[in-house]
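G., the chain you wanted modeled:
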Amino acid sequence: GGPPMSWRDERIARRYARALYQALPPEARRPAVERLTDVVTWLRETPGALEWLRHPLVRSEDKLALLERALEGADERLVRFVRLLVEHGRAALLPAAADAFRAEVDRADGRLRVRVRSARPLPERVREQIEALFLAQGYRGVELEATVDRRLIGGFVLEADGRLYDASIAR
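Predicted structure as tokens:
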């Protein structure tokens, strides 16, 4: 939820994600993805949580206290990463940075996350064709997330590996 991010913010979030990726040894990356995903899912599903995190009048110390509690027991480097985001006034970028970090780890593992928005539910045959297309490009695994977008009259929008393919007709 929340306002769409600017290209600049997306770039900054990716930079933070890359720094986290480089700070963690390979065996700590997938657990960090899982932990960050849990925290971001909690933030997205808790009414008002993301807005609170984005709000300029909420003190950084309060944001940090909440996030550190959510990350209790996590790898210290992950906690430092979140602390850095908050201290630099970038707490609102946490969901995007988490998504970018997951993409970075998936890429290193040869896995690809594909998001498809379509006017109608994707038939199983089409899902299989999309997965086969990316597997043929050398990916070892494809995670396909398909959603119906009522704003579309026909076609689809596919997002994979930082690229957007728009073959849709919007209302």
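The chain has a mean pLDDT of 92.

Shout if anything looks off.
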